[in-house]
Design goal:
Oligomer: single chain
Number of domains: 1
Strand content: under 5%
Shape: flat
Number of helices: 3
Helix content: 40-55%
Radius of gyration: 15 Å
Structural class: mainly alpha
Length: about 60
């Protein structure tokens, strides 16, 4: 149900950018692997940094 609500909201008011960390190998309750999840979150930002900078109108020197 939550997935349907999320898709509906995204369709009605789409975000400017979506970051999708690659976390499919982790379970919801894998708290012991938090460091791994945080690292992947950082990696996701790095992969999308050019699009984020363009969206926010900032240069690499400002980051």
């Amino acid at each position: 149900m939550q997935d349907r609500i999320t898709r509906s909201r995204l369709a009605g008011d789409p975000p400017d950018i979506v970051l999708s960390p690659r976390l499919s190998h982790l379970d919801l309750l894998d708290f012991a692997r938090a460091d791994e999840a945080i690292k992947e979150g950082r990696d996701s930002v790095r992969r999308n940094l050019p699009a984020l900078q363009d969206l926010l109108h900032i240069s690499v020197a400002e980051v």
